[in-house]
Amino acid sequence: MHEPDDALCTSRVARCLLFCAVFAPLTANAQTPAPSPGHAFPIKPVRLVVGFSAGGPVDFVARTIAQKFSELSGQQMIVDNRPGANGIVAADLVAKAPPDGHTIFHSSSGLLAFSRHLYPQQHLDPFREFVPLTLAITVPEVLVAHPALPVRTVKELVALAKTRPGQINYATSGAGGMPHLAMESLNVAAGIKTVHIPYKGAAPAVTELIGGQVQLTFFDVPILLPHIKAGKLRALATASDKRAPLLPEVPTMREAGYPSVNADNWQGMTLPAATPRDVVARVNALVVKAIQSPDTRERLAAQGLTAVGSSPEAFGNFWRAEYEKWGKIIKSAGITVE
């Protein structure tokens, strides 16, 4: 009587073992965590969002890097120009994008380093909304004077300004930009008072300076270089740690005795704050390779720009230092923007 029961039991055990053998691998696979998006970056076109219109200096750098990135990665990097609200429109778009590395914010120093100091009510906190990706490029600011101003060095300018407080004017492309902050940092460091004359852009500011309506300005080397070479403007110093390659004869502010007047303009890239660290690392590796490629370096250098390409950590430290430095200058100089 027991033999049929034993046979039935054996049959059931066999069927159970067969079921386990067939379905166990499927169950194991179902429980294996999905690979991080970073393991397959990029899996689709990458969007490089720029908060300025096409054709400007930030757009030029973004497109130069995007071209090389596309060649190296096999996926197209598309420059997406989203001007508006001093870069906030573009920043908001990236901050809300999926944190998978396929949407990158390419910004000038303005929004990342000193915009919150100038616009306290600004809702966007870049340190909360983004993680650093890389420092893309730097470009030195150069202080120039109209030839009619009787100065050839920063020392002579400071001495003259102290005898003429509030009588020497300087032009900028608008309140709160790097040229404005660079000159105010010299005012603070040297204890002088020059008068800010803001224009709507670099072109009218430089035109007025060449015409003698104002006496000084600070701008990126590429903007002023042709006029310096033509003798229409006199270069006094570059606000950088090293002499500008395109102006090797012009001393730095450090050499002139004002090391705190360091106003390298720069552009950097960030990702949405929730981007995983492994994804940041993979995006960084490809972007830095594109930035540091010989042809990218050469193309940027021809425009007076220095290609960098840093680690996220190095850019994060640099970014924070710039934010704190310019915050102090803005407060000391009492700079406000309407």
Would you write up a description of this structure?
- This protein is an alpha/beta fold.
- Helix content is 46%, strand content 17%.
- It contains 12 helices and 11 strands.
- It has helices at residues 2-31, 57-73, 88-95, 109-118, 126-129, 154-163, 178-190, 202-210, 221-229, 277-291, 294-301, 312-333, and strands spanning 46-50, 77-81, 103-108, 130-139, 141-145, 169-172, 195-198, 216-220, 234-238, 265-272, 306-307.
- The strands form 2 sheets. The protein has a 6-stranded mixed β-sheet, with helices on both faces.
- It is globular and about 65 Å long.
- It starts with a helix and ends in a 5-residue tail after the last helix.
- The model is unreliable at 1-38 (pLDDT under 50).
- Provide the β-strand percentage band: 15-25%
Low-confidence segments, given as residue ranges, are: 1-38
- How many β-strands, per DSSP? 11
| Side-by-side strand order of the widest sheet | 2-1-3-10-4-11
- Overall form: globular
Helix content: 40-55%
Helix segment tally: 12
Distance between the termini: 100 Å
Query: What string, H for helix and E for strand, traces the elements in order?
Result: HEHEHEHHEEHEHEHEHEEHHEH
Cα-atom Rg, whole angstroms?
Answer: 28 Å
Structural class call reads alpha/beta
Largest sheet: 6 strands, mixed
Mean pLDDT: 89
